[in-house]
Design goal:
There is one protein chain. The chain is an alpha/beta fold and 381 residues long. It is built from ten helices and 16 strands. A six-stranded mixed beta sheet has the order 1-2-6-3-7-14, sandwiched between helices. A four-stranded antiparallel beta sheet has the order 4-5-16-15, covered by helices on one side. A four-stranded antiparallel beta sheet has the order 10-11-9-12, with helices on one face. Strand 1 and strand 2 form a beta hairpin. Helix 3 packs parallel to helix 4, helix 4 crosses helix 10 and helix 8 crosses helix 10. It starts with a helix and ends with a helix. Pfam families: M20_dimer, Peptidase_M20. Keywords: Hydrolase, Metal-binding. This is M20 family metallopeptidase.
Length: 381
């Protein structure tokens, strides 16, 4: 049996205990004081298991970001993950039901963060040194819903120095699948301005901004093309001042997912060239590409093949998947750096109230990650 798996097998409860520590330190993206409490717990985990101290990137809006380094080689492996969650404080609670552990951010992606820490711990405890590459482990807190505006430059800077980038986001659903492709994301806010009027006395004098945006939504929805993997979602619309007033203001939020940067640029040009349907109305468009697509390359396939072989060493069948959710790994992939995603916990329900992980997969995911690190160190050039 594989040496690493032999060491970690049967330690699911220990790994879960560390995950529980982080999950109970709730960390909503926009609540810096809570995020920083979680960040402090992460630092305790690194200190407990790896005797490591971080470089701290102070952030005045989000939780502070952490950079750890293991080794001194000129060649580098980057592990990048986030510790913020979509959940408001107190919205969900941690609990275990059979083989499932539930809680805010447990799948996305505190479980994966702990799995990556334990992978490094396994190599340390087994005295399997990484001789040819150092590991940089970066943890950010400005991911969910805001697309890593402060940490993106750090991630890209580290990625450019790296041979490969590994991302312990959740696996694809209940499968053992790693993620070799992710869709790019565009986000837009469209403001419409019209003219207010009394809805009963003189509606003909008004220009309804809500109607203008309704026409825009009909057109934008038509850009969805499932055969291309392109989806355009009108996620939120608001406007007007009262039911008896012709609305003079309205705004619309649009989310777009695309499989390639070529398609991203095509959709970008269409949306940014929109004109009012009513020539008496005006529209103003804000936004653009917030996450590039993570497109599979020959190097990605090579990296996945190594991971698949690592899993076979202890009977863990690794699959691959293409998904629509966003990841900071996309920043690295867009720079041409081989990137493998989905190395975190197995489970379902990211961003859903039933978010949970499978406990009996934890040791296997640690073994996969640790074997992958060792194999990349030995064979990747």
């Amino acid at each position: 049996m594989n040496e690493i798996y032999q060491w970690i097998k049967g330690r699911d409860s220990e790994i879960l205990y560390d995950i529980e520590r982080l999950v109970k330190k709730e960390s909503p993206t926009l609540e810096k004081k809570f995020a920083d409490l979680c960040r402090e717990e992460i630092q305790k985990l690194f200190a407990d298991h790896l005797n490591a101290q971080p470089k701290i990137y102070e952030d005045d809006k989000f939780g502070n970001h952490l950079r750890y380094q293991f080794g001194e080689s000129d060649s580098q492996i980057l592990i990048t993950c986030h510790y913020d969650t979509v959940w408001d404080q107190g919205e969900l609670s941690y609990y275990v039901d059979g083989n499932k552990a539930f809680g805010p951010g447990i799948l996305d992606m505190k479980g994966g963060l702990v799995i990556a820490i334990w992978a490094l711990k396994a190599l340390k405890e087994l005295d399997i040194p990484l001789k040819n590459k150092k590991v940089v482990f970066f943890c950010n807190s400005d991911h969910e819903g805001v697309a890593s505006p402060h940490s993106r430059k750090i991630i890209e800077y580290e990625a450019k120095k790296s041979d490969v980038v590994l991302v312990p986001e959740a696996s694809a659903s209940y499968t053992n699948a790693l993620k070799t492709e992710r869709k790019g994301i565009l986000r837009y806010k469209i403001h419409a301005s019209g003219k207010a009027a009394h809805a009963g006395n003189n509606p003909e004098d008004g220009v309804n901004a809500i109607v203008e945006l309704a026409n825009q939504v009909r057109f934008l929805d038509g850009l969805t093309d499932y055969s291309l993997g392109t989806t355009v979602n009108a996620g939120r619309i608001k406007g007007g001042t009262g039911v008896n007033v012709v609305a003079d203001q309205a705004e619309l939020d649009i989310d777009v997912r695309v499989k390639s940067m070529q398609e991203a640029n095509r959709i970008k040009e269409i949306i940014e060239s929109l004109k009012p349907y009513n020539d008496k109305a005006t529209i103003h468009i804000e936004g653009g590409i917030v996450r590039p697509s993570m497109e599979k390359t020959e190097q990605t396939e090579k990296l996945f093949a190594i991971a698949k072989n690592c899993g076979s060493k202890f009977g863990y069948e690794v699959q691959e998947a293409s998904v629509g959710g966003g990841s900071d790994g996309s920043f690295a992939a867009a720079l041409g750096i081989p990137t493998l995603d989905g190395l975190g916990a197995a489970g379902v329900g990211p961003h859903a109230k039933e978010e949970h992980i499978l406990i009996d997969h934890l040791s296997k995911r640690v073994a996969l990650f640790a074997n992958l690190l060792s194999e990349i160190d030995q064979s990747w050039s």
